[in-house]
């Protein structure tokens, strides 16, 4: 004699019910993982623009121009050109990369000053250590201080930065 509830006919065996339970478990797992992180995900800008900045040196000046910094992982990279006046034979160009983890971007957007580090490499392959700090004035822009060590001379540049978020048009 067959029982009233056959094991093959219960609600647990309908494919739709198994799918619903799997989705509920997945949502529960993911919400637990996000709660464990303790912070909402930061909106990470794809690009950071630093307008041309200058600093004084002994009887001269250095002007630093960069392309927009583009994010890849925790690193923002750009190319640069440094013009040294009046000693043009010291001019150089190369690549510069700054490490700024997502947690630091979140702090910056929340109004906290952050510090960063990185490295530049000139067109001759010579490394240039880079350190600095960014101080926000709004969630998308603020002031920046960049220190670049060039052959034992510390160049200190003070300027501005601006995030170009994906939702914002890119300035030409």
Fold blueprint:
Elements: H1 15-37, E1 47-49, E2 53-57, E3 60-66, E4 69-72, E5 75-85, E6 92-99, H2 102-109, E7 114-122, E8 127-136, E9 141-150, E10 153-164
Antiparallel strand pairs: 1-4, 1-10, 2-3, 3-5, 4-5, 5-6, 6-7, 7-8, 8-9, 9-10
Helical content band:
10-25%
Strand order of the largest sheet: 1-4-5-6-7-8-9-10
Mean pLDDT: 81
Radius of gyration: 26 Å
Task: Specify the biggest β-sheet.
Answer: 8 strands, antiparallel, barrel
Describe the structure.
This protein is of the alpha+beta class and 172 residues long. The protein has 2 domains: 7-37; 47-164, Lipocalin, CATH 2.40.128. 18% of the residues lie in helices and 46% in strands. Strands 1-4-5-6-7-8-9-10 form an 8-stranded antiparallel barrel. It is globular. The relative contact order is 0.15.
Q: What's the gist of this structure?
A:
The chain is α+β, with helices and mostly antiparallel strands and 172 residues long.
Keywords for this structure?
172 residues, single chain, alpha+beta, eight-stranded antiparallel β-barrel, 2 domains, Lipocalin, 10 strands, disordered N terminus, disordered C terminus
